[in-house]
Structure formats: structure tokens, C-alpha cells
Amino acid sequence: MGKRFEEIEHTADVAIRVRGRDLAELFVNAAYGLACQLSDPDALDLTIEQEIELEAYDAETLLVSWLGELLYLSERDECVLADFDVLEIASTRLRAVARGGPVQGHRRHVKAVTFSEMEIVRVGGGYETTVVFDV
After folding, report:
1. Count of structural domains within the chain
2. pTM for the complete prediction?
3. Which residue segment(s) compose the domain that 122 sits in?
4. Per-residue pLDDT in tens (0 to 9) along the chain, 135 residues
5. Residue 66: CB partners within 8 Å, gap ≥ 6?
6. From CA 65, how far away is CA 57, in angstroms rounded?
7. What is the CATH number of the domain that holds 127?
8. CA torsion angle 26 29 31 34 (round to 10)
9. Bridge partners for 51 per DSSP
10. Residue 2 contacts by C-beta under 8 Å, 6 or more apart in sequence?
């Protein structure tokens, strides 16, 4: 699968279009897109590891919850989580491990992950969605 995500134009916030061959890859690529908004993932020393388990009403709510949890943990632990292993995923349940490290300064402050334009759709050989971050 080529590019993990691409930034797309949005009037007031930051938006990315994310693709994945399956839900696991879509969720990992969206999380990596969030990490790129916060910092340079390649410059991180991956010394922090966090296991995350979430349940939600549907896949879109699960994705927003996943990204929201990563954002919360980044704020709480003053780090950026940028490497991910999805251990289990269904449209309403996720279990994953996220790794990251402390950062000196953030690229930008992301206040929240929104439901704006969020719809996970099947395309070609996988999935695609747009994620809008409130900055």
C-alpha cells in the first residue's frame, strides 16, 4: 500500500485522507497521520509502550475513540505515540499496542479528533476515510 496518509485541504482545521488494505492498516495509518501532525515520528526514541483496548458502537466511532485515546495519552505522558501493532480488530472492538517517545516540541497542537467527514468506506482492495483534527 503506498502512502500511509495524505493531507487534504480543509477550511479551518487539519484533515487527512487515510487508506488501508484492511481495518487494522487503516487504523494504524490514521494513528501515524495523527503522530505526524504532532511531531516528527522518525525523530522519536520509542521508549514508551501502551496497550489500548476500546469498544464502540461502530467502526467510525471506534476510529475516533482510538485517535482520541492516542491524543489523550500523548498529552498526559508528554510524548507522541507513532508505532502501532493492532492485536485484534473488529468493527466495534480494538486491542492494540502503541509505542512512542518524549518530544521537545510539538509541530502543532491538536485539540480533538472530530466526526466531521468521517465515513469509513470500502474502495478498491481496502478501506478509506477522512479524519479531521480540530487544531
Report:
1. 1
2. 0.91
3. 5-134
4. 457 776 667 666 889 999 999 999 999 999 999 999 999 888 888 999 999 999 999 999 999 999 999 999 999 999 999 999 999 999 999 999 999 999 877 777 899 999 888 999 999 889 999 999 988
5. 27, 30, 31, 52, 54, 94, 96
6. 10
7. 3.55.10.10
8. -130
9. 97
10. none
